[in-house]
Amino acid sequence: MDDAPTLKLLAVAADAQPGLSVAELVARQSGETAAPAIATTVADALARLRSEPFDAILALHEPPRLDALTLAKALRGAGDETPLAVVGHASPIDLEAAVWDAGADEYACLAQTSAEQLAGRLRRAIDARRRTREARRLLVAEQRRLEREAEEATQLLLAQQRLVAALAGGRAAASDRARPTLRLAGAASDRYTQFAEASLVEDRLDPAAVRRLAESLADEGASGPELLEAHLAAIDRVTHGAPAAGARRLRSQADRLLLEATLLLAEAYRERYVRATESLARTTPAARAA
């Protein structure tokens, strides 16, 4: 118990002695032994709060000598979120709504509230403000995380677009008779685009279907760079407008699809080469003589 943090309480009252008496009763009920600080005007209270932090404020509402509602409005207007409990002589039904509208956390009528109850309300106000600050901190951290993910997704998309542009430029420079890109090469390219989009959206990859698709691409004579261009175009469509976290998951799955499709396309070409060389060997004079 000796290691518990001390509650720094600021009492605000037109008459110092009554204000301190109420604050000391509340502090004792909270198990605190440190003497509360006192301010006798709104200006004095604001000055004390600017010079040092307090855990809570207990203001005695005694207009016109000291208007606790003015204090609450000034605090919240300045961005100060120190928990504020207002005590006064008016019944809660007459003043509680105005107190909350001004920005205070609690209101208690001196004639209807014990020191123990007031201490509990003050603790409740402190805990509520602490939870609000923590929620705001977590919200800011989450917003920053989402901003970072959005930036990462944008950079990935730009990198893919640059890669597509580089591939297209390289083919154009190599030959004026270059074939149209895979996206425009016919039914096989359409099937690949549709297959890639369906696999990514449904989160399912069928190896047999990928093999059949690779065979059809090989029949058309598609190259690896053309496969990559069609693949990136499909990813661009699927991930457009998706949340950053979802886009990253889709791209990770797309990497597996591209790897499998590329390997199977290479395997399809190898099988065709083997069949072609075997057929050629059977047509040589030595093979016919044997």
The CATH architecture of the largest domain: 3-Layer(aba) Sandwich
CATH superfamily of the largest domain: Response regulator
Secondary structural class: alpha/beta
CATH topology of the largest domain: Rossmann fold
Q: Could you spell the SSE succession in H and E letters?
A: EHEHEHEHEHHHHHH
Please state roughly what percent of the residues sit in beta strands, choosing from under 5%, 5-15%, 15-25%, 25-35%, 35-45% or over 45%.
Answer: 5-15%
Mean pLDDT comes to 77
Low-confidence stretches: 174-185
Give the biggest sheet. 5 strands, parallel
Q: Which CATH top level class of the largest domain fits?
A: Alpha Beta
- According to DSSP, the number of beta strands is 5
Task: Tell me the domain tally.
Answer: 2
Question: How would you write the strand order of the largest sheet?
Answer: 2-1-3-4-5
Q: Helix amount, in percent?
A: 55-70%
User: What's the oligomerization state?
Assistant: single chain
Write down the Rg: 37 Å
Shape, per Cα inertia axes:
rod-shaped
Separation of the first and last Cα atoms: 102 Å
Number of helices: 10
